[in-house]
Amino acid sequence: MAQGEVTGTSASAEALAVDVSRGRVTFQMTDASETIHFGFNAAAVVDEGLALRRIGDHFTVGSELARGQINIIASGTGGQASYQTGEVLEVGSGPILFPAS
Q1: How confident is the model over 28-39, as a mean pLDDT?
Q2: Closest alpha carbon to 8 in 55, 74, 62
Q3: Phi then psi for 52, rounded to 5 degrees?
């Protein structure tokens, strides 16, 4: 399992190199100053493919998409996401219910 941070730039750049043993990878937006777009085994292109827009947005890919080269591009300069390979704990948020008094 590996973890790290990736930052988008105005040009497509490698976020993760090819790793034939990587089964899954999850990305989560941590700085939403710019939208980050992803390219799998191809250059990332603004306004195409998967994108992270708001803090907390996340996705997980597996199989061929996870093992290949993953590239990112931002809609401007900035935008940061964290990643983790392997299995992850899926966490969600929703309304908080308080007991009636």
Answers
A1: 92
A2: 74
A3: -110, 130
